[in-house]
Predict the structure.
Amino acid sequence: MSVSRQKVTYFYDADWCRYYYGGGHPMKPWRLRLTHELVVAYGMYRKMDVWRPRPLAVDDVTVFHDPDYVDFLQRITPDNEKEYTTKAQIFQVGDTTDCPIFDGMYEFNAKCSAASIDGAIKLNHQDTNICINWSGGLHHAKKGEASGFCYLNDIVLAILELLKFHDRVLYIDVDVHHGDGVEEAFYTTDRVVTVSFHRYGDFFPGSGDYTHIGVHNGRYHTVNVPLDAGVDDDSYQGIFEPVIQAIMDRYQPGAVVLQLGADSLAHDRLGCFNLSLKGHGKCVSFLKKFGVPLLLLGGGGYNIRNVARCWCYETSVALGMDLENDIPYNDFISYYGPDFRLHITPDKIRNENRPKDIQSLVNRVLQNIQRIEIAPSVQQFERPSDGYKSMKEDEKIEREVMEIDVSESDERRIVAEEKQAGSAVQHESFL
């Protein structure tokens, strides 16, 4: 396989941007439209297959999530939430949590998960080499509990799909927050290695120490790389590349899932790292060189202009395209003022990760990786059915039908909400 000519499949659903977590909430699905507008403006849609995910069945969700939890998510709305007060507390949903109840809550998360699952199916059947779903990467959701703005864990669902065809799957998380939901789901198995590079300490979710390595068959198959604030491009790549290289050499996964939470960029509203787009995107280019089926997912990111910049740029990395730094005209060009440039300049802040401490951490992590069984095999099993047949029957989105179908009233409401939120945080670049 030629790494430079890998086929890329991109998932998009115009409905994603219609949902709204509520006033003042940092999670804004509107960022998905901004990302898509840039992808279209740069003409990248012409160089990849564009698909709309299929509707997600309940059975597709309950392969991981508790049926009672899924039923609750389907039933609860802002109008009837008082009827479900007790269950809302159990499932960690509602005003007292970071996972509010909003109109279309289940539908939005199901649509995001559907694209990740469909991407895994296409990779399984070798229809493509790289699949992209920027709505995915919701890594905090647990089996029967919402957490960290995440209700359904599309990553776990996609990995379970990949395991139908691959003996071993590698999951990599570069979000500033620890990928606790995915780690918990696969903590006891050797069929998945989970790797998380994240801020550790007094920081949500408070987990992810390097000593957490998995248990039972999964011992040493959990890899945590806890970092301090201010990590920059050079120090990040000095950690990321040797760790991932060692895992790829020893574990030899059949597929890789890469969560690209953009809150590890500089200037993020909730993050504290200091990466540029190029530093963040090097994670994609490094994984591409292995030629292994690759699923790229979104995740966190709370400066929506920079989220759009980042995921647009990483789409270009997946495609092997070079983009002009001057952003092409699009319906939201005013969002990128005053310079209207694609790339961002990191902050002039202190990197709290000292070179000596980084080297010591990398050495400890590499020692644990060397204890992973070399390319463990699994017993033969009957391959479960998947949705490939129905997917093949669906029509691919035509390239000329890339215009986003959002009513003017929806657009005016969402843009007004974004401006209001900008005033609330008194820092326009946060949005």
Notes: The beta strands are 8-11, 49-51, 130-133, 169-173, 192-199, 222-227, 255-259, 294-297. Residues 3-430 form a domain with the Arginase; Chain A fold (CATH 3.40.800.20).
